[in-house]
Amino acid sequence: MEKNYLPIAINIAGEKILIIGGGQSAWSKIQILKRFDAYVEVIALEVCDEIKNSDVPYTVKAYEKVDLKGFLMFYSCTNNPELDAQIARDGRNAGVLVNIHDQPALCQFVSPAIYQDGDIRVAVSSNAKDVYASIRIRNEIKNFLETKTLKE
Ligand SMILES: C[C@@]1(CC(=O)O)C2=NC(=C\c3[nH]c(c(CCC(=O)O)c3CC(=O)O)Cc3[nH]c(c(CC(=O)O)c3CCC(=O)O)/C=C3\N/C(=C\2)[C@@H](CCC(=O)O)[C@]3(C)CC(=O)O)/[C@H]1CCC(=O)O
Ligand SMILES: NC(=O)c1ccc[n+]([C@@H]2O[C@H](COP(=O)([O-])OP(=O)(O)OC[C@H]3O[C@@H](n4cnc5c(N)ncnc54)[C@H](O)[C@@H]3O)[C@@H](O)[C@H]2O)c1
């Protein structure tokens, strides 16, 4: 069935979120999740310096299905399509929400482009069809809201 993403706002403060992979894609995700106070853990064969120098706990190991246990959701950033497909299947079987970096066909949820001003959040999604449109429209909304605030 064709994907049809419901945009929701989910509380992740203190929630356990797993990142599989420790490269720059993983680091980008971690920074966003930490802004929203998630409890993030990483497992990866190799971890980049940014993660090593952060306060995010990481384990250097090969992914195993059992690693998913106890997490609300996870992001796979392994850059390995075969492994990602296996991880996506494991996530569904384990009932843990799956995001596979830059592979919307394998995702149960995707991330919108966000504008945040305190408690106000605007999220723009293209149903994972055109991320560049999402970013452009988010920027237009941001400019509109910031100009409006300046005039008030
Ligand atoms: C909004 C944002 C949120 C976030 O990541 O948290 C986000 N991508 C961001 C940045 C970004 N993404 C890409 C670049 C270019 C540079 C690069 O190549 O790295 C940059 C720019 C950058 O990195 O600065 C390329 C890209 N992204 C995806 C694909 C695959 C595909 O489209 O098939 C390709 C290759 C496309 C191609 O063919 O060129 C896929 C996805 N990107 C999504 C979200 C989800 C769909 C959202 C929706 O519904 O519209 C989804 C499905 C991922 C998911 O959520 O699983 C974040 C905004 C940062 C901000 O706020 O400014
Ligand atoms: N935001 C982004 O997405 C972004 C930003 C800047 C640059 N890049 C570039 O895109 C390219 C890809 O980056 P990336 O981070 O997606 O991939 P990467 O290849 O850098 O990292 C993949 C990670 O997955 C881990 N991994 C692989 N197999 C594993 C297994 N079986 N078990 C556990 N861990 C495993 C590796 O150890 C590594 O940490 C790089 O050149 C990067 O510099 C991406």
UniProtKB/TrEMBL annotation:
EC number: 1.3.1.76
Pathway: Porphyrin-containing compound metabolism; siroheme biosynthesis; sirohydrochlorin from precorrin-2: step 1/1
Gene3D superfamilies (alphabetical): NAD(P)-binding Rossmann-like Domain (3.40.50.720)
One example GO MF annotation: precorrin-2 dehydrogenase activity
UniProt entry keywords in alphabetical sequence: NAD, Oxidoreductase, Porphyrin biosynthesis
Catalytic activity annotation: precorrin-2 + NAD(+) = sirohydrochlorin + NADH + 2 H(+)
Signal peptide boundaries: none
Keyword NAD: yes
Pfam family, one: NAD_binding_7
Class of enzymatic activity (EC top level): oxidoreductase
Protein name in the entry: precorrin-2 dehydrogenase
Organism per entry: Sunxiuqinia dokdonensis
Source taxonomy: Bacteria, Pseudomonadati, Bacteroidota, Bacteroidia, Marinilabiliales
